[in-house]
Amino acid sequence: MGKVNKDDILDMLEKYDKEDITIATLGSHTALHILRGAKQEGFRTAVVCEKGREVPYERFGVADEFIFVDEFKDIVNEDVQEQLRNMNAIVVPHGSFVAYAGLSNVEDKFNVPMFGNRDILRWEAERDKERKMITDAGIRMPYKFDKPEDIDRTVMVKFPGARGGLGYFVAGSFDEYNQKIDEMKERGWINDDDAKQAHIEEYVCGCNYCIHYFYSALNDEVELLGMDSRFESSIDGICRIPAKDQMELNMSPSYVISGNHPVVIRESLLGQVFANGDKLVEAAKKLVKPGMNGPFCLQCLCNDDLELVVFEMSARIDGGTNSFMNGSPYTFVKFEEEMSAGRRISREIKNAIKSDRLGVIIT
Ligand code: AMP
To answer: Which ligand 1 atom is at minimum distance from the Cα of 230?
Structure first.
């Protein structure tokens, strides 16, 4: 099956009533502030909801329309797409949308106008592509080891799949690596296939800053929207146990994100923060036209040289933006009004409608 054709999407947009646009998303991840932000900007809103998971969208009153599906992945079903097009919907993609709908379905089958650059989603999903974009940008990433035999320092070992950091482990040598792989298999956290696909990278000892940017393709400007840091189970719990007890308990930590808290970074590091955002946007323009287009996130560890090392990126709205639904210290300085990442998306759509440039930001 061929890819969704951008010209077909532009034709659909052409037929849309621009006075009656609906901002729609899948009911999960960052839907609350995507929809609230859309309402703040004067749009009608719709949520595609798995039956039984509608409670937050009803209780917070963010959705004007509900489209119920048996399973999230049914958002790509033709009848759901038609309902969306009939309400002049622009769909905002987020991490769960891509994970549940399936990347290939979003690329090949989802014939509904979407905010951002559809083609960039694959660049965050595939580790090699992600690494190419970040390193092409000239941004420092943790050193990657091609073979476990080469381990010569403390490393972080990661596995594929949408299970977050479950089964990730830290090792200091090839022997320890083998021993922990066996342990993870015994626990059922990984299987043989996962073990073959293990990704091994330098362990960066530092503090976590997940930095949320917005690239306005309309203004050709990178904005800093906010920052969060993560609560991770069970590593954060283990860190609360005294070292001597940790040794006795012999626990294997995991790095599963269970929540986020807002943070700010030292003001003197903001130059580096903006430089990284600018560099990534330039690299993205070259690698996957038209480039970043909308919200993105660089997940960083700041080491004691005060260097931001990027271990992952999101090329769409990141879950950590939930930590500033009513705005962050940075959006306060920039906009002097409540500005969530969700609202910023709708503001961009509104500006594009006003200036008749929707084609620049829709894919
Ligand atoms: P990820 O799935 O890549 O987002 O990683 C989950 C968590 O593992 C991160 O939030 C960090 O706490 C930790 N982590 C990931 N990569 C590294 C690394 N290279 N060095 C140290 N910690 C890491």
So the answer is: 10
Phi, psi dihedrals of residue 192, rounded to the nearest 5°: -60, -40
d(CA 80, CA 112): 10
**CA gap 168, 233 in Å, rounded:** 11
Q: Environment class of residue 154 by beta-carbon count within 10 Å: exposed (0-12), middle (13-18) or buried (19+)?
A: middle
Residue nearest to atom 8 of ligand 1 (CA): 255
Closest CA to 30 of 96, 98, 89: 96
| Nearest CA among 159, 166, 156 for reference residue 201 | 156
**Beta strand extents in the chain (DSSP E only):** 22-26, 44-50, 65-69, 89-91, 144-145, 155-158, 169-171, 199-202, 207-216, 221-234, 255-262, 294-302, 308-314
pLDDT along the chain (363 residues), means of 10: 88 96 98 98 98 97 98 96 98 95 95 97 95 98 97 94 78 96 91 92 97 98 98 93 89 90 98 98 96 97 98 97 98 97 98 97 95
* Ligand 1 neighbours by CB, cut-off 6 Å: 142, 156, 158, 165, 168, 201-204, 208, 230, 232, 255, 299, 301, 311-312
Distance between CA atoms of residues 63 and 92, nearest Å: 14
Give the sign of the dihedral formed by CA 264, CA 265, CA 267, CA 269: negative
Q: For residue 94, what are the contacts with CB-CB under 8 A and spacing of at least 6?
A: 25, 26, 28, 29, 30, 31, 34, 316, 317, 319
Decide: helix, strand or coil at residue 335. Answer: helix
Residue with tokens 């949408």: 162
Q: How many angstroms separate the Cα of 240 from the Cα of each of 93, 167, 235?
A: 36, 20, 9
Distance 362 CA to ligand 1 centre (A): 32
Distance 289 CA to ligand 1 centre (A): 29
Q: Could you tell me whether strands 44-50 and 22-26 are parallel, antiparallel, or unpaired per DSSP bridges?
A: parallel
Furthest CA-CA distance within the chain: 67
Ligand 1 test: best mutation among 156, 201, 309, most atoms within 8 Å of CB?
156
Residue 93 CA to ligand 1 center (angstroms) comes to 24
